[in-house]
Amino acid sequence: MPHNGQESDKHDREFNAEVIHTTFSSATVKWNLLVDAEVYKVEKHHKYKGWEKIGWTSKDNYVIRNLEENFGYLLRVQALKCNASKSHYDTINTSPEIVACTLADLPSALALHRALKKSQQFLVKRLLRRRPNLIEYPGPNGYLPLCNAIAYGEVCIADYLLTIGASVHIGNLDNKRTPLHASPTPVRKAHNKAIQTRGGSINETSSVSAKGALLGKFSITRPKESICIP
């Protein structure tokens, strides 16, 4: 028999159904066992079909499997008790609707390359926060993200890549070209001058001078309309 009023509110708080764990293809829902409940029904909402039963359990949790990756689901749990005639189950409480979002798979170097090429700064940052070591993986053209950012004229993205530790010494593992080779002429000149001032060779690399050249001198090529997302 359904509850109402203050008694219903009390049972809703006691029920306390929630999502406690998600993976790429599953979600685990947990709730508090109710004194009068004998079995629990877990349901998933369908846009056209409405609420559909996923499964039954007498425990305080249920793992929903075979879900789509990177997708949101609307769920609820119903507590039921067998009626006096033992002919069917009556719903004694229904949990508030809860949302479960499955995880997205780890982003790939190709996904990062496409986001970089399309000048999608926010997406580039999101992908790298999810998988920071992508700055060490070359794109389909063989060049690392920093080198590609410079080649494509993506100044803000290049600044960000340098900030999170992208190497200024490696651009392409096959031909040994560095990000400075892909940078505009003023940047290369600034880097070479910085090294020669220290009495070194132009072919030598210096983390401080190279990074300084890319961050400082490269800004002179930045289009006026460029906006860097913090």
Automatic annotation (TrEMBL):
Q: Which Gene3D superfamilies match?
A: Ankyrin repeat-containing domain, Immunoglobulins
The record ties this protein, via InterPro entries, to:
Ankyrin_rpt-contain_sf, FN3_dom, FN3_sf, Ig-like_fold
Q: What protein does this entry describe?
A: ANK_REP_REGION domain-containing protein
What species does this protein belong to? Glossina pallidipes
Q: What is the lineage of its organism?
A: Eukaryota, Metazoa, Ecdysozoa, Arthropoda, Hexapoda
